[in-house]
Design a protein that fits this description.
Elements lengths: L2 H17 L13 H7 L2 H10 L9 H15 L18 E2 L5 E5 L4 H6 L6 H12 L8 E4 L13 H18 L3 E5 L1 H8 L5 H4 L4 E4 L9 E7 L2 H6 L4 H15 L4 H4 L2
Parallel strand pairs: 2-3, 2-4, 4-6
Antiparallel strand pairs: 1-3, 5-6
Helix pairs in contact: 1-7, 4-7
């Protein structure tokens, strides 16, 4: 592996470990070239193992534990902004710890704040149908939000709230390392891409999300912006555009529309 790429991945892992509370790292000298290759194979090897998961079980215990630690030690008791004062509970996110796709919304709503789960209201039900139409199950993907607390009256997140909460999202994505990110709605897309462009200009094509948080620095993940399910419920005519976006995601993942298979 190129030393520059290896260095970038190591820096990203250390940043993630720091967010998880790690303060020291035990050093173990590899005993063979084979073991070194296994340790530094990176996201491409993770992707291959996920594709082969139907043939053999894949061990996700490391990712599950890292997510648990992040949630328990950082997110649950977070008081970085005033949203902590009105929340019922934080909404960390849920789904597969080895997802091919991660869906990112803007913030929890009433039902999410009540249940502690992301996308469980009417918008969540529509998202579940979208995922099913793509040929996947909800438990095979990961679903979360930029904010982990519900804003009052479901208003859009403020810049200060996004700044306080986005490190948690970045840590989640560094742990999950999916093949594709789907940004649901303008706030999520603007946050992940660090842009002021509206969702109408961003959707319909892939963008690069950099795990480092700095554009152009280190490995990236393909990101597809699209309309938020709540917006689609209010504007059903836009569902066609959203489905066009999801078909681009399916094509990138090599997924076939299950409806075509049954016709």
């Amino acid at each position: 592996m190129d030393l520059t790429i290896l260095k970038q991945r190591l820096i990203q892992q250390l940043r993630s470990d720091q967010l998880l509370g790690l303060r020291s790292i035990p050093l173990v000298w590899p005993t063979s070239k084979t073991s070194t290759k296994k340790q530094t194979s990176g996201r491409s090897a993770n992707t291959q193992s996920r594709v082969a998961s139907s043939a053999a079980p894949v061990d996700d215990s490391s990712q599950v534990e890292q997510l648990r630690i992040l949630n328990e030690t950082q997110v649950k008791n977070c008081k970085k902004c005033s949203l902590c004062e009105g929340r019922t509970q934080t909404v960390f996110g849920q789904g597969s710890a080895l997802p091919r796709v991660v869906f990112v919304g803007e913030a929890p709503g009433y039902e999410e704040d009540k249940q502690g789960l992301a996308f469980v209201g009417r918008a969540g039900q529509l998202l579940t149908r979208i995922i099913s139409a793509m040929g996947m199950k909800r438990e095979e993907v990961y679903i979360c939000n930029v904010l982990k607390c519900r804003p009052p009256q479901n208003r859009d997140p403020s810049a200060e709230e996004i700044l306080a909460c986005s490190p948690y999202l970045r840590a989640q994505l560094e742990i999950l390392q999916p093949e594709v990110l789907v940004a649901l709605g303008a706030p999520a897309a603007k946050t992940l891409l660090n842009t002021a462009d509206g969702i109408g200009r961003l959707r319909g094509r892939f963008h690069d999300y950099y795990l480092s948080g700095v554009t152009g620095e280190g490995p990236s993940i393909a990101l597809m912006p699209t309309y938020h399910p709540a917006y689609l419920l209010r504007n059903p005519s836009e569902k066609v555009k959203a489905w066009d976006d999801m078909q681009l995601v399916m094509s990138r993942l090599g997924l076939t529309d299950p409806r075509k298979l049954s016709s």
